[in-house]
Amino acid sequence: MRIYTRTGDQGETSLISGERVPKSDLRVEAYGTSDEANAVIGISCSVVDQGLTWSLSERKKFLNCMEMVQRLLFHVGSELSTPKGKEVPWPITQSHVDSVEDAIDQWEEKVPKLEQFILPTGHPTVTHLHHARTIIRRAERIAVGLKADINPLTLTFLNRLSDLLFVAARYVNTFSAYEEKGFRPDQ
To answer: For a pLDDT cut of 70, what percent of the chain falls above it?
Structure first.
């Protein structure tokens, strides 16, 4: 099977249902943005072995969580690329949201109390996680335009996922030589 089909050469693509839409369609923009975040999460994982002082079990837990997130982003893509009224092949469920919340709760216990804004700097894994977080926020903003036509848990999931990526970045930074840098507007 060839990767190219030539069916998108004129600026259209197919949704999961086979329906043809312009590549500028809000659905395509939303799931493309989710896919972009997925790739950046992959980059964050690829540099995780550069100078972090965590144990093998902590590293494994982090990588397992990020793999879970990457897999769930395919569910998000499924939700966003399925037109209203069609069955979503891999829907986002409450258990997916719960899994993300559980990871947030576990990591949040291990980072300093948040008392100020955090600059998105630090270890390369951290900066890529912050980058992915901002892309997820963009995907969420785009998906809001589809709110009436998508599973409401998709928006909930995207909102929680940006929180998870923020907390994950803070967590990873605790194992790095970088000091977390805070910011207060009054400073």
So the answer is: 99
Total domain count, the chain: 1
pLDDT tens for 5-43 read 887 777 888 888 888 888 889 999 999 999 999 999 999
Token pair listed for 171: 């967590």
130, part of any domain: yes
Torsion of the alpha carbons at 174, 47, 135 and 80, rounded to the nearest 10:
-120
Rounded to an integer, the average pLDDT of 84-103 is 96
Token pair 């949704």 is found at 15
Q: Is residue 138 part of a domain?
A: yes
Please report whether residue 8 resides in a domain: no
- Give the range of the structural domain holding residue 158, as residue numbers without chain letter: 16-177
Q: Are 151 and 92 in contact (CB under 8 A)?
A: yes
